[in-house]
């Protein structure tokens, strides 16, 4: 399936006016239904998932999609986008770009990872919020991936700290390290007193408190990742995050 089918121009709404996240989810869900990508009941599944965990994935961006049980309602993979005329409150966070996602199988992980990687590019994210051209929205979201963005606030180099703690762990969740599992990792990592990272063995680790960075990894069920931390309390911090990643 090519990019024009995944994100058709008819699946993009520019300057949309909505008053709440519920209306925003209805809007992108309706676009998916109109395009024939999902059954009508998929919209309700998007609301059900939102009630479980917020779909905000980064500054100003939400990526709502259905529950795992709703995959049977998906006819084909598709992305629908609503660029809002004004930001709306989304569980305490302002959101201007809403990306509805539909996929019938685990093939949504590479797609979500690709979108998350693009959304880490601040220049593209700014254009998504301000452009009035639907074609540009499609190009921004599904064009070539930008170079990985450096962490905005890199931690200072450690001085006289204990040796780094590195623990490999197999991803236990059926959906991989995405959505609800990733949100749980972010929550636990943020509660630690040391910086924790997650990455594939031999790959570049990412900040475990960054939802977009975790989604951009595109890690599937059964894959092994390494959890790392250094400094006082590193062992306990790593073990706490490992327990979340290993959970089914």
TrEMBL record:
SUPFAM superfamilies xref list? HPr-like, Phoshotransferase/anion transport protein
* All copies of domain HPr, residue ranges: 164-248
Keywords on record: Kinase, Phosphoprotein, Phosphotransferase system, Sugar transport, Transferase, Transport
The processes (GO biological process) annotated in the record are:
phosphoenolpyruvate-dependent sugar phosphotransferase system
Mind telling me which GO cellular component terms the entry cites? plasma membrane
- Extract the ranges annotated as region (Disordered): 141-161
Functional note: General (non sugar-specific) component of the phosphoenolpyruvate-dependent sugar phosphotransferase system (sugar PTS). This major carbohydrate active-transport system catalyzes the phosphorylation of incoming sugar substrates concomitantly with their translocation across the cell membrane. The phosphoryl group from phosphoenolpyruvate (PEP) is transferred to the phosphoryl carrier protein HPr by enzyme I. Phospho-HPr then transfers it to the PTS EIIA domain.
- For this entry, the protein name equals Mannitol-specific phosphotransferase enzyme IIA component
